[in-house]
Design brief:
62% helix, two-stranded antiparallel ribbon, mainly alpha, globular, 5 helices
Amino acid sequence: MVNIDLILKGYDEAFLRLRTQRNDAKINGDSKSLYIPLVETLGWADVIEEYFDERFGKDWMLKLPNSKSDYEQVILGFRYARNVVHHRWAVAVELDSQIPLLQDWRWKLTLESTRPQPKNHAAYESKLAGRALRHTFKDLHKIYGLARKHLVD
């Protein structure tokens, strides 16, 4: 049976591949090679988001201890991107302009939706827009771990 532990394992393993391949990409100077593990990590994050939404409601992150407002903003920003792209992640991400060592995949500065999502759009602009995806993945890893501990057990 597919449960949250298996889903979180998928996310963690994809994120680990992304971090490992990032080191290889630095050596080879090939940031584009990171796109595959990046999209895989985004896909697992989407599955986790749906899991928590279905079981604990859309405001599940507010049930977590500590920095609830930061958690909420990261999750709402991620939801915004997901709702805009409908699993076509290439629409939401791009390589930054840093050439010297390794370009970073980042969230696009502007990501316009065809349907109004003012709260989620504001969260995207404040927490994700222009930010390297690896930082968002670290935040999501922390949030998902807390959710696993405080909501599922």
